[in-house]
Design goal:
Distance between the termini: 75 Å
Structural class: alpha+beta
Number of strands: 19
Helix content: 40-55%
Largest sheet: 6 strands, mixed
Strand order of the largest sheet: 15-16-14-17-18-19
């Protein structure tokens, strides 16, 4: 990249981030600031009001000029707001920010038929735009709130309430002032990262352009992507900032990079039980570590290219997208990072995890139809996945045969790590077994994670936990040498360090006190009772014991249907970098943010393995897991504005607490596949049967009704077991059409007549039961269709009670 003018570069990047902040401020009152006039002037007046503060980090005259003069269209803006009228020494860079603004705001679609009051027009939910093969829903909009997952649900309204905007701006002003007063160091990374976080919290719900027919792009995502694009343009053109070349939209000035970790599922779930709560501690830890490794790799790429945080366009679930400048040695830098990461995975994880990286060049014009970009790079990534650790396997066009041999001395067999059985271990005196450093980290992270509010990142090995590329991290607020502090427990800024906020769903149930076991009916059979400690994750056996009836665990795995199509085609001609960024971020708000709150508040007995991006895996008492699935789908529909083009599918598996995790997840995975294979998807597979979500509520009611009759000895478990057999015979008939399976009808008729009260019984309860059973004789009865789920649920809920 050469030696760029760092202060000038920082000035351009920050100006691009704040160039449209006036769009938010001009919608209400903001202290003594004059918020009247066109938004570039309001943006300029805002930064001018804090000249003393900003001057510590940037060239202020250039900074204010770029914020004020970032438009080229003379018919729309006053002369003093145009690039072409900027002072000569600043004009080229004004055009640079203008082009970044244009590429980011290529989302501007059809203009509204009539003027829309920018002060009263809310942000439309991005999910109202997604159209694949079903009609679009009624438009829903966002209220003005600082970004909190529970406040990120759209609603049906048209304009803001009186004073709603002023109250929102007042909160923004208070947080911004606290930030300005607290910053004590002249470090650009600190100011930039905090400003990004503050803007995310307050401009996420503000539309970038209110004059579109559907104003659905968040101002925050527009500001962020503009800054990212400007950083790339500066580096590409440095040191020759020629206006003609800057305005050239056909040259490939950018590189879009996508990174994706493969092998995640096998790595997370292929663990054994070592020590008290071993699996419970380590399962969440492994999932969390892989998220952090994705962060570290993306950070390393930013540091290698001297780019701000804004250039990470998306990162979640082991996948990240980064915008890079197409400079001369970009390819070599990327290949070096890829090889070094592959080598780390090879040495530390036996290459169980693999980093797939692919890139494609972009021009300014490519931002106009971003769906083509997303589709093309997705295809390139699939090709790359077919060549795992290729950087190590081949050298100078030849196979590197030495890589097939692990250079590890395992020593004596009894010294093999008892947790993973893949590496030599160090003796752990406290637990009396050998454990390798990686598995020891799993246990340590598993112990700390549920009480940690921050992750601190280091470019060297100063952190407690070592990652790839020489980087490391801690699960604490900060210490000397930190390059970034990430809040994961709620927005609590740390002003003396670069800071950002990420939703990470890390809730797991823990022992609230050491007297927990005294209330457990299984305490006399528990082998771990002596090892219970306050704050330690509950053993899976404890979670299973929270179940009603049979003590079983439920594994629920769910993800969004047709998400690739939604990103690639759902936005139609309106697919742009800002819009895709808004959609990705909002999905993560739901799966990483709202899921944490939903589980913590309403399902505290459920263990989060992972939840982020667009999918989720949780473990809990079998009956809680079913009800959680129903609530998950209900909340997702509401979050996406009831758009039938965006649906969720899930699979549930039920196992004993000591069933191998890997196999349990595999069972849930297979159930999810069955849901995906169902017509139009939007399904749940449970007890081996696939149903549409809308059926679940009524099925649960029917199941609980049958369980109540069992509990009250109105029915015998033998009769309900027979119902299961009849359900299987009916399913065989529907699948094969062979009438021999219809034998269940006379069998069931005889069973009902022999074991149930008469239809003429005077007892209303007994008559209700008989009528319920008689309805099963109708081949079109929903009860008969779902009888397998209903009977299984009732039997499991009643298992171990006196009538069985």
């Amino acid at each position: 990249m050469g030696n760029i003018d760092q202060r000038e570069y920082q000035t351009v990047v920050l100006a691009a981030l704040l160039h449209d902040v006036g769009k938010m401020l001009q919608r209400g009152s903001f202290g003594s600031l004059d918020t009247k006039g066109q938004h570039p002037q309001v943006s300029s007046d805002f930064v001018g009001a804090f000249k003393g503060f900003f001057s510590r980090f940037v060239d202020f005259d250039l900074f204010k000029t770029l914020v004020q003069r970032h438009h080229e269209h003379a018919g729309s803006f006053k002369d003093n707001l145009l690039c072409q009228n900027a002072p000569e020494e600043y004009r080229a860079l004004s055009y640079l920010v203008s082009r970044a603004d244009n590429y980011s705001s290529s989302e501007r679609g059809e203009r509204a038929d009539s003027y829309q009051d920018f002060k009263a027009t809310p942000l439309v939910s991005i999910f109202s735009r997604i159209e694949i093969d079903k009609h679009l829903p009624e438009v829903q909009r966002y209220r003005l709130n600082p970004l909190m997952s529970e406040a990120a649900f759209p609603d049906k309204f048209v304009t803001y309430e009186e004073n709603e905007m002023n109250l929102h701006l007042r909160k923004f002003g208070e947080e911004f002032k606290n930030f300005v007063d607290a910053i004590g160091q002249s470090d650009f990374d600190i100011i930039y990262s905090h400003l990004m976080t503050i803007l995310m919290r307050y401009s996420w719900c503000i539309p970038s352009n209110t004059q579109e027919e559907v104003p659905d792009v968040s101002l925050y995502d527009h500001l962020k992507t503009t800054s990212a694009i400007a950083a790339c343009l500066y580096q590409y053109h440095y040191p020759n900032f020629n206006e003609v070349e800057i305005k050239n939209d056909k040259t490939n000035k950018f590189i879009l990079l996508v990174g994706d970790l493969s092998g995640i599922q096998n790595y997370i779930f292929n663990i054994t039980h070592v020590g008290a709560g071993g699996v419970a501690k380590r399962l969440r830890a492994r999932s969390f570590q892989l998220n952090i490794i994705s962060e570290i790799i993306s950070h390393k790429i930013l540091h290698t290219f001297n780019l701000p945080l804004a250039n990470i366009l998306m990162v979640s679930g082991g996948k990240f997208y980064i915008l890079l400048p197409n400079i001369s040695d970009a390819k070599n830098r990327i290949e070096s990072i890829k090889k070094e990461t592959d080598l780390w995975f090879f040495k530390n994880l036996n290459a169980e995890i693999n980093l797939n990286i692919t890139t494609m060049p972009l021009s300014g014009e490519d931002f106009n139809d971003y769906k083509v970009v997303m589709n093309n790079i997705s295809q390139l990534l699939q090709q790359e996945k077919k060549k795992p650790i290729n950087s190590l396997l081949s050298e100078n066009g030849l196979w590197n045969e030495d890589i097939a041999l692990l250079d590890i001395d395992f020593g004596e067999e009894e010294k093999l790590c008892k947790a993973c059985k893949k590496f030599p271990g160090e003796y752990n005196k406290e637990n009396d077994y050998y454990i390798c450093s990686r598995c020891f980290d799993d246990q340590r992270i598993g112990t700390l994670l549920h009480t940690s509010n921050y992750v601190s990142f280091y470019k060297d090995n100063k952190g407690e936990f070592k990652g790839p590329l020489g980087y490391s991290f801690d699960l604490k607020e900060s210490s000397k040498g930190v390059y970034l502090v990430m809040s994961i427990g709620g927005h609590s800024p740390v002003y003396n360090y670069p800071y950002n906020f990420r939703y990470i769903a890390n809730y797991i149930p823990v022992f609230i006190d050491e007297d927990y076991c005294s209330k457990c009916p299984q305490k006399n059979k528990c082998i771990n009772i002596e090892q219970v400690k306050k704050g330690q994750p509950l053993f899976f056996e404890c979670i299973a014991n929270e179940s009603q009836g049979k003590k079983m665990l439920g594994y629920l795995k769910a993800d969004v249907d047709n998400l690739g199509a939604a990103f690639a085609f759902g936005l139609k001609e309106k697919s742009t970098i800002s819009r895709v960024s808004t959609m990705s971020r909002m999905l993560d708000v739901f799966f990483s943010g709202f899921m944490q709150k939903l589980i913590e508040d309403d399902f505290p007995e459920i263990y989060t393995v992972y939840s982020g991006g667009d999918d989720i895996l949780v473990i809990g008492p079998w009956d809680s897991i079913i009800k959680f699935g129903e609530e998950l789908n209900s909340k997702f529909k509401r979050f996406t504005g009831n758009n039938e083009n965006l649906t969720l599918s899930a699979g549930i598996a039920f196992v004993k607490h000591n069933h191998p995790v890997f196999r349990s997840v595999e069972m849930a995975d297979n159930a999810l596949d069955n849901s995906k294979d169902n017509k139009d998807k939007e399904s749940l597979t449970v007890f081996g049967q696939t149903i549409k979500w809308f059926m679940l509520s009524e099925i649960i009611k029917e199941s609980e009704k049958l369980e109540e009759w069992l509990r009250q000895n109105q029915l015998s478990s033998g009769f309900v077991n027979n119902l299961l057999i009849y359900s299987q015979m009916n399913n065989s008939f529907k699948k094969t059409g062979r009438t021999e399976h219809l034998r269940f009808l006379p069998l069931m008729t005889y069973d009902i007549a022999r074991n149930l009260p008469s239809l003429y019984d005077r007892d209303p309860k007994k008559k209700e039961i008989r009528l319920w059973a008689e309805s099963l004789k109708n081949l079109n009865s929903p009860r008969l269709h779902h009888l397998g789920i209903i009977s299984n649920y009732a039997l499991m809920a009643n298992r171990g009670k006196r009538d069985e």
